[in-house]
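the two lines:
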Amino acid sequence: MADKVLMKGNEAIAEAAIIAGCRHYFGYPITPQTEVAAYMAKKMPKIGGCFLQAESEIAAINMVYGVSSAGKRVMTSSSSPGISLKGEGLSYLAGSDLPALVVNVQRGGPGLGGIQPSQSDYFQATRGGGHGDYHMIVLAPASVQEMAELTVKGFDLADKYRMTSMILADGTMGQMMEPVSLDFDIKPAPEKPWATTGTKLEREHNIVNSLSLVPEELEMLNMKRYERYKQVEENETMYEEYMVDDADIVIAAFGIAARVSKNAVNEARKQGIKAGLIRPITLWPFPKAPFERAVEHAKAFISVELSMGQMIEDVKLATSCKVPVTLCNRVGGMIPSPEQVLKSIIEVNNGGVE
Amino acid sequence: MEVITIQYKRLTLLCGHYGSGKTNVAVNMAFDLKRQYDNVAVADLDIVNPYFRTKDSSEDFEKMNIRLICSEYANSNLDIPALPQDMYAVTDDKSLKVILDIGGDDRGALALGRLAPEIVRENDYDMLMVINKFRPLTPDADSTIEVMREIEAACSIKFTGLVNNSNLGEETTAHDIINGDAYAKEVSEKSGLPVIVTTVKEELAPELEGKIENLFPLVLQAKPVI
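prediction for all of em together
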């Protein structure tokens, strides 16, 4: 194994993006993701890349649109309120079928909220965020190592499907320091024959645009886009299963909530309760298969979230509401403790909470 | 085991690259200094980072009667750069021995500029660069010295020594410390500054005794979330 380095999650994203060939970063500082920008500011000038602190989040996402149109790997990062500002740009990227990597290191909301961790942008990320019918590929890391790995993966998927990949992390993932191996198998970015790179008078003009005034054509574009989304759903779901095979109580949790939940599952097992964990790594496409399997033997599910209950809707859909699904949560920047999750497991196992 | 006795000047300034472990070192040095001297303060001049501040250890400081000089807003989640209202105690109260925790990189070191003329005039200080080989932007001597020069330019004080804090967090092994030692020696050689201490998490110290000079065992302050 290659040598490890000690990194913050935010730094791991930045370094992994550079390793993946990203040479264009545009952003605007906001806690708790500022280290992504700070790292890029230090490193990009040394490797012939472009770091630019834009005048606003809206400017930054439109710079992403520009670079992506020219066929280059490009990214921006922000935290919850900043992602809302980028919403229009995300929709335009989708409407123009442009690949990009967007990072959201979530903080407590709504509004300006606070600077402590949260997962309450789940709906925004998995249901689009901007206007119109579209999806982003949403990746949820649960370690600093995964912050790096999913960044590389995010660029690959974005290019492959001409979509935006979003890293949906939380403040804890951004700020925590862990040893990381940056030894990745980097595939070259695919050819982008659609990019606006100059015709050299050898081909027709490429046009990147999200305006489509003929309704029949716009309908066709949407239909075709959703065929692509179907391929993503069929081929790209990722998840981790932990002690699910014989589980009576199955927890669904991602990111920091999954780390907390794993501890609670271990403790529950010690107490003789058959608990397990499904950790979605792609939040869109949501990994339905492990839930469809688990619902055949589980007597209840618990969705552990740093939100008022957002992913729980996907858990209910994936399990077709065949058994009860309860919520175990903290919000506003608070994190559920393993003890709280264990208490929830015990209650649900006793049939006490519906 | 035998532990190094650090000869503290009146002021010990800890600077370094972002995330090099300055706060951890500062807290441990304050505990260590308190064993040698009564009137000890920790001054938190970090204007960069709203998280992981010396204030996390305020209960321990209180128990040990160590004064904490830090901004009202440290750990309040109010994310604005602010300096402590009583920061001039550092230079005014000559009976205090102070460990100063300066924010990361040259940006953080700017905060020191206001105190620098008096610190240099009094000339009873050490300015120590906290270094960690395992941080991604300072993996070798040249990149580390580049950050040192940026910090010196920002705060107008020259470094007098190094604190080798090379570590991989919880996963650190004795082998890593030995690797870090070679790196620190190279930084020392190229910069002409002595390695004052090499830190190691407490549990590893016995294993390394006699293998590393000036070993300084650390009780880690920042707790892993999970």
